Amino acid sequence: MDDIQGLSPELMQKTLQRHRAWLMGQSNGVRADFSKMRISGTDFSNAHLSKAVMTGADLAGANFTGADLEEVDLFGATLTGADFHNANLKRANLRGATLRNANLNHAILTEADLRGGMIMDMDGNTSVGLDVTDITGCLMDYVSASRAQMSGVDLSGSSMVGANLQGAIMFGSDLSGVDMSFANLRGANLSDTRLKDARLSRADLRGAEMANAKAENTILDEANLDGANLEGVDKQALRKGLDPELVSFDQFPENVRSEIDVHESWLNSNGASGRPGNLENQAMKHFDLTGRQLSGMRLHGARLTGAILSGADLTLADLSEADLNGANLIDAVLAGTNLSNANLSNARLSGIQIDPIEIYSGDGQASGRFQKTIMRGARLIGADLTGVDLNGCDAAGAMFKELSK
């Protein structure tokens, strides 16, 4: 590996400018080549690196957030802990790369190649083995990886909630402990995969090839298996039809119980005791919050996947950027609630109350102003909106179906 510990900001800027000129066919353009360089931790956020060469480079911890990496060559690269959030890796070559603990949330991996890479001897001519692509412990929620080549990949312990893996080739991959709840695996090839402790709750597996998959304690509750080939699969090992285990209030972490208690005390005493609760960015997956009084609570970025919030009062609560994928919000009060950029995909929203609510001043006087429920930029793909009229909401930019990529 080249003895280059990093590039100066000036040289990096010049390299990126020349690469962009090369992409545009300009005579002064030069294709970016970072092969075998030690440039861990480099900031490539929002960079235009389509078709760049990075084979064998040490890019551990690099920031590729929002970068255009279409058809980039990352063969054998070290990408441990790298951040590819919202990056475009369409048709990228990631064969033999190490992506352990990388963040690929919302990245585009359509037709990307993540298979193992051939290890060559010193003369570069003879293959001496296959280096398996390591994607263990990755964050890949809502990744778009349709038709991706992922055979023989180690994905154990990764999170792929809501991922689009339609038509992906995952033959022989290790999916032990992977959470693929709500994932689109329609027509995917999962033959000979390891599915021990994998969660495929409400996944779309229509027409999937699952022959000889090794299932053990695999959860498929409410998954759609129409037309799936389960030949050679141990049906008794599939925990099909079981509901996920809900977390009851007495099982909540102490800080969560405390915040809810002081918040409800504040509400019930009209502010005489307690205080507004704050559970921003709190992990509350599958928490049972049925009927809770959470009006005005700060829940920005809260992770509420599969949570039960039916009948809960969330009036004027801040749920912006919260993850409510698959949550049950039936009959919840969402008047004036801020759900901007929240993920409500697959959520159950029938019976929700979303009428604009009048704002009162500090002395309890009506202001004559009304606050709408805000759903700007929210994801509502697959949500059950039976009987819900969103006309009174601010839902500009909300997504109701998956965009083609």
Break the fold down into its secondary structure elements and pairings.
Blueprint: H1 9-23, E1 117-120, E2 127-131, H2 254-268, E3 357-360, E4 366-371
Antiparallel strand pairs: 1-2, 3-4
| Average pLDDT rating | 89
Taken in chain order, the helices and strands follow as HEEHEE
CATH level 4 superfamily of the domain at 245-405: E3 ubiquitin-protein ligase SopA
Look up the CATH topology of the domain at 245-405: Pectate Lyase C-like
Explained architecture:
Helices cover 7% and strands 5% of the residues. It is low in regular secondary structure. The protein has a domain at 245-405: Pectate Lyase C-like. The model is unreliable at 119-130 (pLDDT under 50).
Attribute tags:
little secondary structure, globular, single chain, two-stranded antiparallel sheet, 405 residues, Pectate Lyase C-like
Brief overview:
With 405 residues, this protein is low in regular secondary structure. The protein contains 2 helices and 4 strands, in the order αββαββ.
